[in-house]
Every structure is written in structure tokens, then in C-alpha cells.
Amino acid sequence: MEQHPSEVFVSNYGSSLGKKSERLVLKEKGQVVLEVPFYGLQNIIVETNGASISTDCIQECMQRGIPISFLSSTGKPYATIVSPHLTGTVLTRRAQYESYKDKRGISLVKLFVEGKLKNQGNTLKYFAKYRKGTDEDLFKSIQHQIEKIETIALELKKISGLCINDVRGQIMSVEGRAGNVYWQGIKLLTGSKINFPGREHVGATDPVNSLLNYGYAILCSKIEKCLILAGLDPYAGFLHVDRSGKESLVYDFVEEFRQPVVDRVVVAMINKGISIEIEDGQLSLKTRRDLSGRIMERLDTAERFQGKKYRLQTIIQMQARRIATYLRGEAKYKSYVSGW
Asked: What is the tens place of the pLDDT at every residue in 31-58?
């Protein structure tokens, strides 16, 4: 079990979650191992198939707006329990659905992807700056990758249409080509420490992709909560095609935060030589706990945004609310771009 002031991770088989007065109680093998006040909790993540949760615990979490997320052993989210009273206003949902058919959907997706590409460049800049005085050739190679991403990103401005269906292929082409360049840069940065075969998604068993996939799953659970609290439907996305059970808006919105939240943590772990254990083709429990703790710490880090400093997890919530106000026609949307 991994604990954070605002997050509780349940990892061990046989664990049980219950309620005692105003506190969440975690037991393992019948013994109390943790008690946390409900008022301090933002999320509960269960990553074992052998856990149980009492109904009074679920009720308390729902009344307080605390989602309970469930991840598979590979880090894939398969369920989230949320309160039916956190669905936001009808006006927000209606605007979200209607914007799929007009230019609002296109503009929002272009901003998500623009933010992603800028954060890819800034992530490479962040790690490259430490190589400038020690490995000039590597520094120059990374700079070249950054320039290629910036050139590809310029194509976004030329894309136009009446609705997202008109331009989805063009936007995904820009995103895909920039992504290939970015991951080549990550491979250059980590090549002396570990063998990174390139980005792989479902079914990846190498250490780097396993870390990335598990980290993204944790981030997606955070993103989903923020979208729901903002009154948005996490299943009604724009770039990612709607499919039953697919949280399309989560996958759209998460693009803005993959690099500053997860990639920065994973590359740092590799460069520091942190042990990454693989057991039966997946991350060991110890490594999953380590990664989870580092991501929670990263989310708690203050970053500059709109002229002030906020915790990253606060910025995510602010951006989710800004999506809602943008779709309702009340404000403009601006991508979050991390510093380096």
C-alpha cells in the first residue's frame, strides 16, 4: 500500500477498505494498517483484484466527492465509482455534445495538441540542458529533434474545417509525426542507461514502456475526476473517436499533461539509475509503488501558470473547468505549457 496526503493506493491482495467515524480504514489480513481522515482525501486507487470495500465507505466517498478508481495489474483503468451528483450542469453537457459538430471541437483539439507538442519540446529541453556542458554532440542532437517538432507543430495553424470529423486525420498525422520525433529524442536521452525500443502501448513488456503505460493510467484517473467535477462527460471526446466504454475526452485532455507529469518522472528515474523490476512481463509491486509515489509527488509540485504558482494537480482542475467555460462560450482556452 502506498499513501499520499491526498491519495491512497491499495495494492495488496486481501486488503479491505471501510469507514470508522470520519476516517477511512485500510486493513490487510484483518489488521489495521492505515487510517486517513476523509476530509483530506481526493482519490482512492485500487490496483489489486483481491480487495473489498464496504458500502458505508463507498457512500461516504460519494458524499464527499472522492472517486474510487480501479486499475488492472498493468495499470489499465477499468472502472471508477463516482457520485451521480457530480455530473455538472445540463448547459455544460449540452454545449459539449453540440461542439462536436462545429468549429469549437476543432479549436479545442488543436489547442490540446499544440500544448502537447510544446510540452514535448520543453521536456527534451529540460533534460538536454544538463548535457550541454558534458555531451555537446548529444545536446546538439536533442536540439535538432526539438526543432523538428516545432516545424511540424506549425502545420496545426493551417488546418481548418467545419467540424472535427473533417480534420481528424490531419491533426492525428501532425500528432503522430511529432510523437515519433519526440520518442527518438527520449531514446537519445536514455540510451546509455537502458534499452528503449521506442514507444509501445498495449502489451508492452519492456521497462520504459511499462513505466509510461502505468504512469499514464494513474494520470488518466486524475484527469477523469477533474473533468467530472467540471461538469463534463469524460466519454464524449473529439479527437479520440467515441466507442462504448472509452473515455474519449480523458484521452483528449490528458495529452496536455503526459510530458510534464509522467514523462519527466520516468526519464528522471532512468537517468538516476533507479531499479525497475519486471516480474512475469509487468512491473513489480515495488516498482509500481515507487512510480506511483513519484507521480503523486510531481502532481504536488508547484508550477507557474497564468502568472502565479499552483500545484500541477490544481492546474489540471483549472484547465478542466476552462474547457467547460470555453465550450459554453464564456472564455477562451489556452494550453498549459510546462517550464523547463
From this structure: 999 999 998 787 888 988 889 999 999 9
Q: Are 205 and 279 in contact (CB under 8 A)?
A: no
pTM for this one? Answer: 0.81
Q: Tell me the CATH class for 2-66.
A: alpha beta
State the residue for C-alpha cell 480504514: 25
Question: Nearest CA to 47 among 79, 18, 22?
Answer: 79
Q: Which CATH number fits domain 90-327: 3.30.360.10, 1.20.120.920, 1.10.10.10, 3.40.50.2000?
A: 1.20.120.920
pLDDT digits (tens, 9 = 90+) for 211-265: 999 999 999 999 998 998 888 999 999 998 766 668 999 999 999 999 999 999 9
Q: Residue 13 has which C-alpha cell?
A: 491482495
State how far the alpha carbon of 56 is from the alpha carbons of 18, 20, 32, 60, 65, in Å.
Answer: 7, 9, 17, 6, 14
